[in-house]
Amino acid sequence: MRASSHARDRLGDMNHLSIDFNLAVDQHLKSAGLSKADYERLSPQLQQAHEVLTSKRKAGKMAFMDLPKQQTVLQETISVAKKLSGTFENLVILGIGGSSLGPKALFTALCHPFHNFLRPPQQKGMRLFFPDNSDPSTFAGLMGTLGLERTAFAAITKSGGTAETWAQLLWVVDRLGKDAARRQLVALTDPEKGSLRATARAEGWQALEIPPAVGGRFSVFSPVGLLPAAAAGIDIAELLNGAQSMVERCEKGNIFENPAYMLATTLYLFDTYKKRSTHVLMPYADALRETGDWFVQLWAESLGKKKGDGFVGPTPLRAVGATDQHSLLQLLMEGPEDKLTLFIAVDEPREDLKIPEGVFDLSDVSYLGGHGFHELLSAERQATATALAAQGRPSLCIRMPSLRPFAMGELLMLWQIATAYAGFLYEIEPFDQPGVEAGKRYTCCLLGRPGYESAQQDIQTYKATNKAWIF
Amino acid sequence: MRASSHARDRLGDMNHLSIDFNLAVDQHLKSAGLSKADYERLSPQLQQAHEVLTSKRKAGKMAFMDLPKQQTVLQETISVAKKLSGTFENLVILGIGGSSLGPKALFTALCHPFHNFLRPPQQKGMRLFFPDNSDPSTFAGLMGTLGLERTAFAAITKSGGTAETWAQLLWVVDRLGKDAARRQLVALTDPEKGSLRATARAEGWQALEIPPAVGGRFSVFSPVGLLPAAAAGIDIAELLNGAQSMVERCEKGNIFENPAYMLATTLYLFDTYKKRSTHVLMPYADALRETGDWFVQLWAESLGKKKGDGFVGPTPLRAVGATDQHSLLQLLMEGPEDKLTLFIAVDEPREDLKIPEGVFDLSDVSYLGGHGFHELLSAERQATATALAAQGRPSLCIRMPSLRPFAMGELLMLWQIATAYAGFLYEIEPFDQPGVEAGKRYTCCLLGRPGYESAQQDIQTYKATNKAWIF
What is the model's pTM? Predict the structure, then answer.
């Protein structure tokens, strides 16, 4: 399964992810599509973005691209996962945002769709739960449902100080007691900094490292994604091979030889030249539903930025086909021309069923008989793409050969490189998130954290309500 | 719990849903907010929209507003639900779009967050499953996980001919055999028309009616929503009381006395006057996650329409607080000024937990100790609203007293009335979805359904791919 990616036949190689831009360009879409000239006009910026990326990478600031080759981390992660899964039935992820979305995407894509309902031997690996919120109903409900003695916890926070994660962690340690915590807890955090690292050391907790130069939303190939995946029984070595294969395919400067650059440039051009600022990711696979949420964070938090006196950033929207043909499609077809649809097709389903023939004789139903469910799903995707194109509405299609770990590695690495590259096209910093700090300050103030008193004034200002505007 | 809604004290009545528009108007938001004059300038259209709605209602075309009072339907639904839940453990909903989103929203909001994992007596009511896609992995996985003999099926399609639903239904009937199907199947469809009704009659299946004048996305208070909810143990009489209470509050023509009209007008004004066309629904409650999906369908499919030579319709975006503070918030705070955030606050959580004090002595964590999880969640919502407002970014907040059925009835009816009203402000037909027909035609053609051969030409046109655009 190891990739020999550079010399592949673009259409012929069925073992690798590919992207089809045909329904996004002018050959089919006329003036609604992009032309080769649109891309070429951008050459200077594209060249510059590649140079910035390359020098950043050399300087160690694109560390997420180096994660797939870290064999020591891989072995260490597998070893912790084995220890946990040999002892416990459940793994609860105490993490939020980038500490939850990556492992959740992997779990949903690569495990059985009802994994948590299965029993051994059908169920290979631990059951995973992601209470990624400070909602007490969820957390109390989960803690009341699982047997705590059969449950391990992975506390994940890069900074080491995330409020939602600590609220849960404090509750868990208090409930388990500190001795049991040493057996049932793993901490994933910065190797040196922060309260979680300090506590893990002081308490003697098991711990894994999130590399300092890897931000939360780029951490899926660090232990953040790998530990839960391995615990659930996913082949994380294959996953990393897929990711590495994509890294190698994306090392060329010419966008026409680089799928991540091509993807990023296309989305950037639609946003800035064509005013199609809403990017709808619509996989035709339930298993990729959570990958949609992962994409939303990656795209929104990386690219939604203040830039000089203005504000930039496309709006990501998550959909699932064929389900959302019965929800969003009307808006995509006949609403404002401000959207670009990004299909994901999976060539080989994990399992298929045949629609039986001759059960009933019904004029508007019988045509379904004899086809496979997967055939129906694929026809629906092709039909939707055709319908959009016939209305002059662009789309592109990411094709995955299967929902194997290798293909997921390719997909998630593709988007991460594309995001970094897009950041430099937008001329913003894709790796920070300064806009979320204000909210954190107000939360601290509201909860009486010393040193945050000055936030009180704004809170009071906007708290003052006029009853006339309450209904 | 019965509502006496008209004479309520707006701020004082804690038993009812309310909407706070303070952070959407100019008093706090200055020029970024709406002024009373903005609303007043729209008076003629508002008056007209109310008149259209009122006459449509008299003509029986707003039938969704009359659903809460249908006592016979309520009793019949409860009786079918009792029969099912007395015999079977699982209820699988064979339905997609409007036939799934409503019951899924109710189930997620009103049952235990891990309902399907519980066992009696903790678990009151049937387990519900929603394989609302033609994805074979999901359906095969589900069918392999549940014991078919312990499972009932509700086949739901208004038209009676939905492809995805029939694919599953044919598989189920073929697998169960026609005798067992009579015991294990319930059909929910039009009282007269369509293949599902005809088949239910011919086969002697149990059946309930979806009123002809009620469209899929407005059907949550018909048996479409009620049967699964009742089967799962939800008090659907209380749900309907809440819905009816909202109907009564929304009968006045003056928007300043009508929460649904006020909500619709505010969103319409932000879209058309302020270019804030993306409407982000962000409940601070995991239980309302699926209500977000229900809202997306309702808002997108009703309002995304061709209008003359142009195209209108806001873009709904679903989020969950506090989770998406770690995902979308950066874009909301510092991205383009094209969004309006609609918070939902729940005053009383179903369950709460306390963050323990004194577990560790950590300078950046200890402030959390002693607070409740719900207090943290509420502080985060208030902090986020404050942070947005301080950046001149508008929001509004829908407050629900609790996640009881009554409050859900209010919430879902509020949005349905608001949607109908907004349709008339946009001067489009909110009850149809003409844009999805083309895709259905292409699907039929691709699967060889007789009579659909003419769609072949478009399919061929857009299938022709240029290898140069595949990466």
Answer: 0.96
